[in-house]
Specification:
Immunoglobulin-like; mainly beta; 2 helices; disordered N terminus; single chain
């Protein structure tokens, strides 16, 4: 029993010693003064061409305590009015007392904070100082930032005006090169469509930036005359039913969509042939494909590495001519005569199924 009493007494003394040490630390550290933050700009327009240029400079004072302490300082960037719920953050060296962000650095921080590229958005900036479990915040600095896109969005077409219907899982991705997304595809008069940012209804949808449209769907600033807004979410196609070239310019200053008639109106020919290195480029002996209906064709063939070919709708070098969109290559997208190149097979030799969907504007080369 005496041993138990001694153990209890020692434990109690240890507790008081530790408690006194903690109290002494708190007494020495004190509450600390509030840090301050200042900026040399109130508004910044960021341009990709100037990525290495200085964008904005921040200066700060550290919190002061009764004894010298090691600080962890972080500058936080957030949309105005969000109470820094999802900020972009940058850890800075406390003793430097200033930092200059380049255009590229501020652009990343702005995008991390959820800013929309190409849109002047008010943000709030503050300094967060951490000393152990103690956290102090500076005053808030107001700044308006216009960021730019570092990667252009992808667009998937969906809707009953299109060849895919309203099945989001089958939404057709447009061919993207730089800021342009393009496809030659079918559109039906009087019906509706829009674009998704993924083959799913969420999270991203794109439609016209007009009054009455869902705010998070607003995107296109300009559009061709054969499109009209369908309030709430969609666009209506008012042109004649047929094949069209859809071009989206995703440059932040443009955000445009243009729909124009394809050079080839035919999307469901009776015949489709392959011609190229697979038959010595002899148009008279072009290889017939199997017609599956609704503009779909396929053919199984042995392809050697480096094979090149195109598709034609007649046994002559006529108007019905489809190849890789825009230029030689293997993108999986079709371009009509005058806007295409050879399909350049980039696989190894073997047997392959070549599938074509003229209505959708796509092709596939799949190994067997």
């Amino acid at each position: 029993m005496k041993h138990l009493f001694k153990i209890f007494t020692l434990a109690l003394l240890g507790f008081f010693v530790i408690s006194c040490e903690k109290d002494e630390e708190i007494a020495v550290l004190g509450e600390g003064t509030t840090p301050t933050l200042a900026s040399d700009k109130t508004s910044v327009v960021l341009l990709k061409d100037n990525e290495e240029d200085p964008a904005v400079k921040f200066e700060w004072t550290n919190p002061q305590f009764q004894t010298q302490v090691a600080l962890k300082n972080t500058i936080q960037f957030a949309k105005a009015g969000t109470d820094f719920e999802s900020p972009g953050e940058s850890v800075v060296t406390a003793n430097d007392l200033n930092i200059t962000y380049t255009v590229a650095e501020l652009n990343k921080l702005s995008l991390d904070a959820g800013l929309t590229p190409g849109v002047a958005t008010p943000i709030e900036v503050r300094l967060k100082s951490e000393i152990g479990k103690t956290v102090l915040y500076s005053n808030t600095v107001a700044l308006t930032v216009t960021p730019y896109l570092t990667a252009f969005p992808s667009f998937y077409i969906v809707g009953d005006a299109s060849a895919v219907g309203w099945n989001a899982g089958s939404a057709q991705l447009l061919y993207k090169k730089d800021n342009f997304s393009t496809i030659y595809t079918y559109l039906e008069n009087g019906k509706y469509f829009r674009f998704l940012g993924q083959p799913d209804w969420n999270p991203i949808n794109y439609s016209m930036d007009v009054a009455g449209m869902k705010d998070n769907y607003k995107y296109f600033k300009t559009w061709s005359s054969n499109l009209v807004a369908s309030p709430d979410e969609n666009m209506q196609f008012t042109g004649t039913t047929g094949m069209y070239k859809i071009v989206i310019d995703a440059d932040a200053t443009q955000k445009s969509i243009n729909v124009s008639a394809s050079p080839i109106a035919v999307w469901n020919p009776a015949n489709l042939y392959m011609v190229g290195t697979v038959n010595g480029w002899n148009i008279g002996t072009a290889i017939p494909m199997t017609n599956l209906g609704n503009g779909k064709f396929e053919h199984t063939i042995a392809l050697s590495a480096g094979s090149e070919f195109k598709f034609v709708g007649q046994l002559s070098w006529g108007d019905l001519d489809w190849g890789n969109i825009s230029a030689d290559g293997h993108t999986g997208y079709l371009g009509p005569k005058g806007s295409n190149g050879n399909i350049k097979f980039d696989g190894t030799g073997g047997n392959y199924k070549v599938s074509v969907d003229l209505k959708m504007g796509t092709y596939k080369i799949q190994p067997l």
